[in-house]
Design goal:
single chain; 473 residues; alpha/beta; eleven-stranded mixed beta sheet; 13 strands; binds glutamine
Length: 473
């Protein structure tokens, strides 16, 4: 497959490159069966204009735009001026953003062509791309299985070759888990690398934009094009990241021995983990590690994420944002109307989390639940801090399961679904950079990714170390 860099260079030398490219993308999306693309006609009309503008630039101007010639798909929670952005919710079904998210703005200024808005779970709450109001996303090649979530559209669209790279968001694993199912690279950088401005919020202290590519080289190309930048509109954004010294020899890799035995993890995933460690042991120093609080991470995560969601989603009461209350003929006081509206326009998973969050934040529970979870989060961070004095990287599976069938999902309880995030949420709580690498395929051809985690802001070091490891295999 041609790399992003080569594609960019080829595009510079080709007349009307994007125009032709877009025709092919439109064909591919028209034949897509995963359900990963939304608002297609609107996005194509927008893309045609952009393609014309960009193709009309001089060669010199194109050379100055590192993403010229490349197409991107954005999860449908990145606002794009003038385009519908729904976050998978009926509340925002007709919302057209008045401004661009910073993530898109930066990509646009580097010459990218937006060619797809991608399916997701409603407000990014979910693990299987099945909670949105607008249809679910299936795993490419496996219509009976989920593409994972909540950025299932971003993973499936890339894996199906619809666009050149995609952006998603990862609050508790939503880039890494679908990347693992679809056998693509899914990268969640250190919290704060990308601006959250113009990204529809779920849980602000955890939400982080992430990147899906086919290869590590493509990911490096994008990051070296400075697609992550500090932004005054988001005070937690610091941009990219230490370009630190890469350790070439004696990389110390931490692994979790109990995961090799844990029967809650699919047997093929455990076997793949064992083989991975064996391979890594040839060139790195493996160290057994244990992070006691990781067992509590899913509980801590859901307490905090639901609390933040209840607060963030309070704005959708039909006055300032979303479908207008006034247009829908509800009776009663404002509060009664807002309650009916929210019951009607939010999906069940979102309503459940708003209620959980409101319960946790109520005065009776605040200290015992919210504050306790906040303290435990701090302790977890501390445990990682000590750990990263002893190791340079952690390697573990991304998720305990392979992409599940829709039938299996429908039998799972909410608690089972929530707990299945226990391998990704610890690093979200700590804000650490974490990447899902396509690693193996199971006997029936399903992707099994491995998750690699580095200390805060050592994103480049993580990716470059992985490139080196990969080149040795
Ligand atoms: N499955 C997790 C949740 O539902 C993660 C979602 C995400 O990262 N957006 O909260």
């Amino acid at each position: 497959m041609i790399s992003l860099k080569e594609k960019h260079l080829q595009a510079i030398d080709t007349q009307d490159y994007l125009k032709k490219e877009l025709e092919q993308i439109e064909q591919r999306i028209a034949h897509d069966t995963t359900g990963s693309c939304w608002h297609t006609q609107e996005v194509f009309a927008y893309a045609r204009e952009k393609a014309d503008e960009l193709d009309a630039l001089s060669v010199k101007e194109k050379e100055a735009l590192p993403l010229y010639g490349l197409s991107v798909g954005l999860k449908d929670l990145f606002c794009v001026k003038g385009l519908t952005t729904t976050a998978g919710s009926r509340v925002l079904e007709h919302f057209k953003s008045p401004y661009d998210s910073t993530v898109y703005n930066v990509l646009k200024n580097k010459g990218v062509m937006l060619a797809a808005k991608l399916a997701m779970d409603e407000f990014a709450m979910g693990s299987f791309s099945d909670t949105s109001a607008f249809g679910r996303v299936s795993l490419p090649g496996f219509p009976d299985r989920s593409a994972g979530g909540s950025s299932g559209g971003s993973a499936a669209a890339l894996a199906s070759g619809l666009v050149d790279f995609t952006m998603g968001s990862d609050t508790g694993g939503s880039v890494r888990q679908p990347a693992s199912f679809s056998s693509v690279v899914g990268f969640k950088p250190t919290y704060g690398a990308f601006s959250r401005s113009g990204m529809i919020a779920y849980a602000s202290s955890l939400d982080q934009a992430g990147v899906f590519t086919h290869t590590l080289d493509d990911l490096v190309y994008l990051l070296e094009s400075d697609i992550a930048s500090a932004d005054s509109r988001d005070m937690t954004s610091e941009g990219m990241l230490l370009k630190d010294e890469i350790k070439t020899e004696s990389l110390r890799i931490g692994f979790f021995p109990q995961m090799l035995e844990d029967e809650a993890i699919d047997a093929e995933v455990r076997q793949a983990y064992a083989r991975t460690l064996k391979k890594l042991s040839d060139s790195s120093i493996l160290k057994e590690v244990d992070v006691p609080l990781m067992k509590e991470a899913a509980s801590i995560y859901y307490i905090l994420a639901c609390s933040e969601a209840a607060s963030n989603l309070a704005r959708y009461q039909g006055v300032y944002f979303g479908e207008k209350l006034i247009d829908h003929g509800y009776d009663g006081s404002f509060w009664q109307q807002a309650a009916s509206y929210r019951s009607e326009y939010f999906g069940l998973e979102v309503q459940k989390r708003i209620m959980l969050g409101s319960f946790i934040l109520s005065s009776e529970n605040f200290t015992a639940m919210y504050q306790k979870a906040t303290q435990l989060r701090k302790m977890l961070k501390q445990q990682f801090k000590s750990l990263f004095e002893k190791v340079d990287m952690l390697v573990l599976p991304v998720t305990p399961m392979q992409a599940p069938q829709w039938d299996t999902i429908s039998q799972m309880s909410s608690a089972q679904i929530y707990m299945s995030d226990y391998m990704t949420v610890p690093f979200s709580l700590a804000g650490l950079p974490a990447l899902s690498m396509p690693w193996e395929k199971s006997a029936n051809g399903l992707g099994i990714g491995m998750q690699c985690v580095a200390p805060w802001k050592h994103d480049f070091s993580l990716i470059k170390s992985l490139q080196r490891i990969e080149s040795r295999f």
